[in-house]
Amino acid sequence: MRFTGTADYVATSDLTTAVNAAIVLERPLLVKGEPGTGKTVLAEEIAKGLGAPLLTWNVKSTTKAQQGLYEYDAVSRLRDSQLGDPRVSEIGNYIRRGKLWEAFTHPERPVLLIDEIDKADIEFPNDLLTELDRMEFHVYETGETIRAERRPIVIITSNNEKELPDAFLRRCFFHYIKFPDAETLKAIVEVHYPGIKHRLVEEALRVFLETREVPGLKKKPSTSELLDWLKLLVSEDVSPETLRERDGRKLIPPLHGALLKNEQDVGLFEKLAFMMRREGRGG
């Protein structure tokens, strides 16, 4: 079982090596990188490339590790007992299976995505250690032990909002998705928009990469935002010549709302344009 990428996902050689190493070691693959570099999509494409089912656990700030195992709905059971519902005699009726339970008992070996683990409380990763190591957990309410029939392929993403515990990191295979270089970006664009105008892509990539390098940007535009911007450029029939005009009055890229996502960054470009005009460089 090896991942080699898919027709819809441009995977670099170091990324495919990391995925396959995690599969061989049977350890979770911890993937970090800038938002918009394809961390979440990677899990979807691994599942597609391996022909495996995908289970997704979207982590939120309020998520607890126990929810990945199961939850016992005691409130509903109490309410049903007051109403005389015969279901109360079977406690299993009030056990809600979590994503780890689903992954451990799935008839096929699944890909389990634990998305944005750093959003949760700092104790969340530590609380998962035993279950991810042993691939089993105990259900106290029913007395049963849930064991993984097949060890799932676990992909964990993080945006580095919080530091993850060392004990957790030791149990993972780590890979950082670097922001793609110009050639890789071209390949990604071609995958999403086959046959798109070559000159437009060349100019758009130049403007996009220059935009990312502007000092002081609060949020650099990502790959996904580049794709949105290109779609708009084609839709509005913006010419490569228009993108090439970078004087003081036109410093902000056309349709910049696809690239710049907060007022501080737009204001930064306006300030730069003003400074260029004052220096006589804006014409």
From TrEMBL:
Pfam families: AAA_5 (PF07728). GO terms for molecular function: ATP binding; ATP hydrolysis activity. It comes from the Bacteria. Residues 25-183 form the AAA+ ATPase domain. CDD domains: AAA. This is AAA+ ATPase domain-containing protein. It comes from Methylobacterium bullatum. The lineage of its organism: Bacteria, Pseudomonadati, Pseudomonadota, Alphaproteobacteria, Hyphomicrobiales.
